């Protein structure tokens, strides 16, 4: 995001883990990401969803975890 901001504008980001807080999502938004795909499942999903809505980006929750502890 920081090294090539012009390449990131309008991109989609995907994560194999949920976002427990909206701070990481905010970094992506500030970097120009327009959509995020993530599994969801955090007890704080609503705050992340709200941050995406407020920023006007698409947030897709797959409901599928890709790793476990």
Describe the SSE topology.
Elements: H1 5-8, E1 12-14, H2 22-30, E2 35-38, H3 45-55, E3 58-61
Parallel strand pairs: 1-2, 2-3
Helix pairs in contact: 2-3
Describe the structure.
- The protein is α/β, with parallel strands linked by helices and 69 residues long.
- It contains three helices and three strands.
- It has one domain (5-61): Cytidine Deaminase, domain 2.
- A three-stranded parallel sheet has the order 1-2-3, covered by helices on one side.
- It is globular, with a radius of gyration of 12 Å.
Give descriptors for this structure.
alpha/beta; Cytidine Deaminase, domain 2; three-stranded parallel sheet
Describe the structure concisely.
With 69 residues, this protein is α/β, with parallel strands linked by helices. It has one domain (5-61): Cytidine Deaminase, domain 2, CATH 3.40.140.20.
Helix/strand order: HEHEHE
Structurally, the number of domains stands at: 1
Instruction: Tell me the β content.
Output: 15-25%
Query: How many helices?
Result: 3
Largest sheet: 3 strands, parallel
Under the CATH scheme, the architecture is 3-Layer(aba) Sandwich
Q: CATH superfamily name?
A: AICAR transformylase, duplication domain
């Amino acid at each position: 995001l920081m090294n090539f901001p012009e390449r990131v504008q309008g991109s989609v980001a995907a994560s194999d883990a949920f976002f427990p807080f909206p701070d990481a999502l905010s970094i992506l938004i500030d970097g120009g990401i327009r959509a995020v795909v993530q599994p969801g499942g955090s007890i704080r999903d609503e705050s992340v969803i709200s941050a995406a809505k407020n920023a006007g980006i698409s947030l897709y929750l797959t409901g599928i975890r890709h790793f476990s502890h």
